[in-house]
Target: non-specific serine/threonine protein kinase
Amino acid sequence: MTTNTTDPMIGRLIDGRYQVKSRIARGGMATVYLATDLRLERRVAIKIMHGHLADDSQFKERFIQEARSAARLAHPNVVNVFDQGQDSDVAYLVMEYLSGITLRDLLTEHKILTPEQTLDILEAVLSGLAAAHKSGIVHRDLKPENVLLADDGRIKISDFGLARAVSANTATGAALLGTIAYLSPELVTRGIADARSDIYAAGIMMYEMLAGEQPFRGEQPMQIAYQHANDSVPTPSTKNPNVPAELDELVLWATAREPNERPRDARVMLEQVVETQSQLRTALPTGATAVIQQRTTVMPAALALSGTGDQTTVIRSAQPAAAAPPLSDATAALTRQANKRHSRAWWWIVLFIVLAGAAGGAGWFLGPGSQVEIPTESVIGQTPDAAAAAIAEAGLTSEVAEEQVFSPTIPLGAVAETDPSAGSVVARDTVVSLKISQGPQPIAVPEFGGLSEDDAKTLAEETGFVPTDSERRFFDAPEGTVITVFGVADDGSRITLATGDQYYDQRPITFLLSAGTLPTVVNLPVDQAVSALAAVDVTGNPVAEREFNTDIPDGNVIRMETATPDGSVAPTDGVNLIVSKGPEPVVIPDVEGDRRDVAISKLQALGLVVTYRDTFDPYPNAEVIGTNPAIGVEVPKGSTVTLSLRLVISD
Model:
């Protein structure tokens, strides 16, 4: 558990009921604290949304959605939600507190789990997930960080912040939500999630528990996403030879790239996990710790049992082994099926040899007429030379196509597509055309200025851009209208996009919106200026050192200063208020005996206004014999000084 005594939330009483004790964890949307429910005298976990997100309706709705989703689930493998509310500037969610660690902590410490530990954890996760799927909820962010392992042995799923109804089956919007390492191919490519997307994440977690690492790695998230979309998850036994074949098959079944080839929901996979547990335990002699290595049949695309309907049956691991057929019987049945297939195969081989002989010999079947698969991993995303070598090794020939294609994920100059498509089965010596990536497609930036946020985001998605969370600053424009559009350069720096600029397909853009007109505080008394700014959530900080100002009275605001180079202000910003201390005092200099125009120049240079009797207008050489106010008197800058003059008759 992490504590932070400098955290302003520590010690705060939320909603007059929840006393915050210490910080447990911090995430992208919220921070989780340990708190005491003073009303019921129990410890709880309270999740508090980050302050900078509290004003964002989209994030706030997602936060509330977590409470609603989790509250609909009453299951021993799902973290209970007790309460949700708003206390002043704090949006919070109160949950069951579990003393323990996360699955991520366990993997960090031990790296690889045993098959038995993996199946026990997976059974608990799938039990909770099955309850969610039965209630029509997809978790959409299943990962080791969201699997809690309590000190008393309980295992629970948490964090339904990205949950959505199973029936929704709609795109997530332009920005992918969830952790990239566990996103299913359909979420990466189409932004679509259903119950089978959770199954994919569970399969990736299972691989990680057995193999000690995630199946796909990359320096950039986009590289990992590309592998999820285009590559098949390997078997964990390739990294850990102690993994039984049965668990290899479970991983491959759960992580199939095509959703239809996975278990249709958590209940279906749970039933197979329980059966696999029973098979492994039955196969081991009493007291044995070795794992069996005999390979079983590949998991079917859907393990739907007739008559089960949509009811969720939670089968615990303590169920008697007799509930599953003995492994010896299952092996015998598999052997009989294999023998039948073996016999049929011989007949087909004989038939093919006969046909091949009639066509000119068996060489046709074993040579150009044989079928091979066009490689995917060693071709897509590789340099043309590397791709050509991989294709040649597969028994095919290649050529670089004149046609180049745009790709938001494949680097410039790498192979983006093949014709025929990668993964398809073709005749040996087929010519495979390599289409080279031109990088992301350049798209002209449309006119976003003046649009509302919703209209601008819709236009961005229709154009091919990825809108991110908008920013707001005060401008002299209606609230919520687009002022500026920002993009991301190749080096990751922020750039300003103008209408007609060339930007790239699937690149993120950020809208700067008007937060309305900032109140005018110049020449207001400082307390009134602070109040006016507070009304729009801007903090006015009067600067202690005041300035002289001829035009602004003492105690009024001269100007407002911000920390931003352009002087703009955003809601929740703090600004400095420069306050006037009135006109600067000036001492009237000794101009007695000076000629009229000389005296005027001296006085005006000090910021004073000079007058004299109009009878002396024709006589610039008139001599000053006195001033009002008198010489040596201190007056405010800008004051009027009247000259007394006498006519000097020249010799």
In short: The chain has 14 helices and 31 strands. Residues 328-365 form one domain. The longest strand covers residues 18-26. The first helix runs from residue 57 to 71.
